[in-house]
Write a structure and sequence with these properties.
The structure is a single chain. This protein has 366 residues and is an alpha+beta fold. The protein has 2 domains: 179 residues, no CATH class; 157 residues, GAF domain (Beta-Lactamase, 2-Layer Sandwich). It is built from 10 helices and 6 strands; from the N terminus they run H-H-H-H-H-H-H-E-E-E-H-E-H-E-E-H. Helix 1 runs antiparallel to helix 2, helix 4 packs antiparallel against helix 5 and helix 7 runs antiparallel to helix 10. The radius of gyration is 35 Å and the shape is rod-shaped.
């Protein structure tokens, strides 16, 4: 079960347990029916023989044959085998007119354990083919079998109705399970987004300037996206100033190159949406310094927007080409959304500080 969802693994284990209990339970019922004093000797042999086949199947299927054999088709194949054993029971106890026809229906009903429509249809088809074959054989081998065929036709209709009803139940359960699984995944994703947003906000709250804020954002990005490098470009056009935070937390300021045209940075700021670059080799407008010295081979370019106004740009860079998923893009945007308000506050305070210094200088002149 390595690498599988724990919920899915637990669900498969419950199916296996229910299937084994049902198999042993039917075998026990057959033995109990054979012990009844009203059971004729021929039927008793058929009941005990079928119970023995189910017992052998349960031992081999659930305790000898490895669980990974047949993969996802294992339950369907195992149920089909029990359906064949049920056909043997009918043959040994009177054919199409057997008094033990009800045991022939159990495998079809058991397919609801899997909550898969495919299992019900496959096992139902096996049951229909087997029972029709038994009826045809009875009609050929037994003269004057009109009553038997009439009773068989009624039972065949009941079998068809049972397969259809079970298929409907399996389809409903399958759709419900899929919807619940999807909702569970959505809730897990939302919980992860909230955790990242909270962790980023807490780290930013401890920052005293944009440099410390960038380091805090780089730590959040390293934890959420596994990216070693973060870039920050300031200004409404992301061309005024910038710095980068490396894998070791060191910061390096740089001046954005205004000569670049149609670079991912400029496209992101023009469109005010995230630009995904899976391989920097496909972007001729990205400088060689970024590829060689800073070792950035893929990136997410996410604009910083506050109240609809651009403040700058965050770039989450990876050292190797990378196929960014929609989930990773969303996490990067959540980090940017958490960063935008503090950046706006820092910029506003910086503007006020500069105006205050300018005013103080004018007062000194006066």
């Amino acid at each position: 079960m390595t690498g599988r969802d724990p919920v899915e693994s637990g669900y498969e284990r419950r199916i296996r347990l229910a299937s084994e209990v049902a198999t042993w339970g039917i075998a026990g019922i057959l033995v109990g029916s054979a012990a009844l004093p009203t059971t004729d000797p021929i039927a008793r042999v058929g009941l005990l023989g079928s119970a023995g086949l189910l017992a052998v199947f349960a031992l081999l299927w659930f305790h000898v044959i490895p669980g990974h054999i047949f993969g996802r088709m294992r339950f369907t194949i195992g149920t089909a085998i029990t359906q064949i054993v049920g056909s043997i029971l009918l043959v040994l106890t009177g054919g199409g007119s057997s008094n033990y026809f009800v045991f022939f229906l159990f495998p079809v009903l058991a397919t609801t354990f899997a909550m898969r429509l495919r299992s019900t249809l496959v096992v139902g088809a096996v049951a229909l083919v087997a029972y029709v074959t038994i009826l045809v054989t009875d009609g050929i081998l037994h003269a004057g079998a009109g009553d038997t065929l009439e009773q068989g036709a009624v039972r065949l209709s009941a079998l068809v109705a049972l397969v259809a009803m079970t298929a409907l139940i399996s389809r409903t359960m399958q759709d419900t399970r899929r919807a619940l699984r999807q909702r569970s995944d959505e809730l897990a994703s939302q919980n992860q987004e909230l955790e990242i947003s909270h962790a980023t906000a807490v780290a930013i709250a401890r920052s005293r300037d944009l440099a410390e804020l960038s380091r805090a954002v780089a730590e959040s990005a390293r934890a959420a996206l596994k990216v070693p490098r973060l870039f920050f470009f300031g200004g409404a056009e992301a061309t005024e100033h910038g710095w980068t935070v490396g894998p070791d937390g060191s910061m390096e300021p740089f001046d954005p190159d205004p000569r670049m045209r149609d670079s991912p940075r400029q496209r992101a700021m023009r469109a005010r949406r995230t630009v995904v670059v899976n391989d920097m080799a496909d972007e001729p407008m990205v400088g060689d310094r970024v590829r060689t010295k800073l070792h950035v081979a893929a990136g997410l370019f996410v604009p910083l927007l506050h109240r609809g106004e651009p403040l700058g740009l965050l770039v989450f860079g990876d050292a190797a080409p990378r196929k960014w998923t929609a989930r990773e893009v969303r996490l990067a945007e959540i980090i940017a959304e958490s960063v935008a308000p503090p950046v706006a506050s820092y910029l506003a305070l910086e503007t006020v500080r500069e105006e205050r210094e300018e005013l103080a200088g004018r007062l000194k002149v006066l």
